[in-house]
Amino acid sequence: MPLPHTEAPGYLVSNLASRGVRMTRQRRAILGIIETASHHLDAAQILRKAQKQEPEVDRVTIYRTLSLLKRHGLIDELDLMHLQGEKHFYERKTPREHVHMTCLRCGRVTEFESRLFDGLKKQVQKECRFQIAVARMEIGGYCSSCRA
Amino acid sequence: MPLPHTEAPGYLVSNLASRGVRMTRQRRAILGIIETASHHLDAAQILRKAQKQEPEVDRVTIYRTLSLLKRHGLIDELDLMHLQGEKHFYERKTPREHVHMTCLRCGRVTEFESRLFDGLKKQVQKECRFQIAVARMEIGGYCSSCRA
DNA sequence: AGTCACGATGCAACCAGTTGCAACAATGCG
DNA sequence: CGCATTGTTGCAACTGGTTGCATCGTGACT
Ligand SMILES: [Mn+2]
Ligand SMILES: [Mn+2]
Ligand SMILES: [Zn+2]
Ligand SMILES: [Zn+2]
Question: Mean pLDDT score of chain A, rounded to an integer?
Answer without folding.
Answer: 91
